[in-house]
Specification:
The chain is an alpha/beta fold. It has helices spanning 20-26, 52-58, 82-88, 107-120, 136-141, 158-161, 164-167, 172-193, 208-211, 216-226; strands spanning 3-6, 16-19, 76-77, 91-92, 95-100, 125-129, 149-153, 198-202, 232-237, 248-259, 275-287, 297-304. Helix 8 runs parallel beside helix 10. The longest helix has 22 residues, at 172-193.
């Protein structure tokens, strides 16, 4: 059996040895009946290198899109505010929900209402307070069962942080960063331990530039940790920072302040008037719970102070 050596221009110095019969099949010689022109060189179709059985085996593990399993919709629970439930359908279990808005926009009102609804269902809840700003009296007045609430205070004590005047000076930003680090560590521990019906990360009093230091990989890890559980994961912030990792995004805003009528007089200064309630606007900015585009919608609900009845 004779052989021939063929060297291609694409692989100089790498000879390929073929039998003469294979060379005739792969590189056929032109016959006298074929005419070659510079305008249109001869075109030949080479047979497929891979057999049909190999292609079928390679595509056997690929499922068509029509046969992909549809992920079931998460269970929805009440947020404690009827207007919010009508807007979003409630809060989804096994998902990350963001509640964002500026100061005095109703973030704490919605958070306490959700905690009260969860504890009334007999669930244990946890609040990771980044700035140590939660007021226990307001929590109890909102109807939260305190014996079912774990309050994690991430603010440092006075002997650790030094005098308040020094803390407000050069070390303020570093203090916020240490608090943020504590929030992330505690969140990992709570999500890993399980058993909580609701876990809330209160980042509302942190500056946005500090809260945005949380990488998207961390939010993705939180989402995966809570994905197959019955826990409602809430993130309370000034601005949305979790991106596509959140399944629900609710934006809040303040529309109107309610003042006591008996104190609204010309001879009474504004700072002496009694606040009786606020009107809050809520917007559904994102929802990844349905497989269809979400139409932006807004609702308005009122929040009354405890002394206003």
């Amino acid at each position: 059996m004779s052989s021939a050596v063929v060297i291609t221009s694409a692989a100089q110095g790498r000879p390929f040895v073929f039998d003469e019969e294979d060379v005739a099949g792969i590189c056929p010689q032109p016959s006298g009946s074929e005419h070659f022109t510079e305008a249109r060189p001869p075109q030949r179709v080479l047979p497929s290198v891979f057999p049909a059985s190999f292609k079928d085996a390679r595509l056997a593990g690929v499922a068509p899109a029509s046969q992909l399993a549809v992920r079931p919709a998460p269970e929805m629970v009440s947020s404690g505010i009827a207007a919010i439930d009508a807007l979003t359908g409630g809060l989804p279990r096994g998902c990350l929900t963001e509640i964002c808005g500026p100061a005095s926009s109703g973030r704490t009102t919605l958070l306490l209402a959700a905690l009260a609804a969860a504890t009334r269902r007999g669930e244990c809840c946890a609040v990771v307070d980044a700035s140590d700003a939660l007021d226990p009296q307001s929590v109890a007045a909102a109807g939260v069962e305190l014996d079912r609430l774990l309050w994690v205070r991430c603010g440092e004590s006075s002997h650790q942080a030094g005098p308040r005047s020094d803390k407000r000076g050069l070390g303020e930003r570093r203090l916020d960063e240490r608090r943020l680090e504590q929030v992330l560590r505690v969140a990992d521990l709570l999500l890993e331990s399980g058993g909580f019906g609701m876990i809330a990360l209160d980042l509302g009093d942190l500056p946005p530039q500090v809260a945005r230091r949380i990488p998207l990989t961390t939010w993705f890890r939180f989402r995966r940790a809570v994905e197959h559980t019955s826990t409602v994961l809430l993130a309370v912030e000034r601005q949305s920072i979790a991106g596509s990792c959140s399944s629900l995004l609710i934006k809040l805003g303040l529309t109107k302040l309610g003042m006591s009528e008996r104190l609204i007089r010309a001879d009474v200064p504004t700072h002496a008037q009694l606040l009786t309630g606020v009107e809050i606007t809520a917007e559904l900015a994102r929802s990844r719970l349905d497989r269809k585009p979400v139409r932006s919608a807004e609702i308005t609900f009122a929040s009354k102070t405890a002394w206003a009845g």
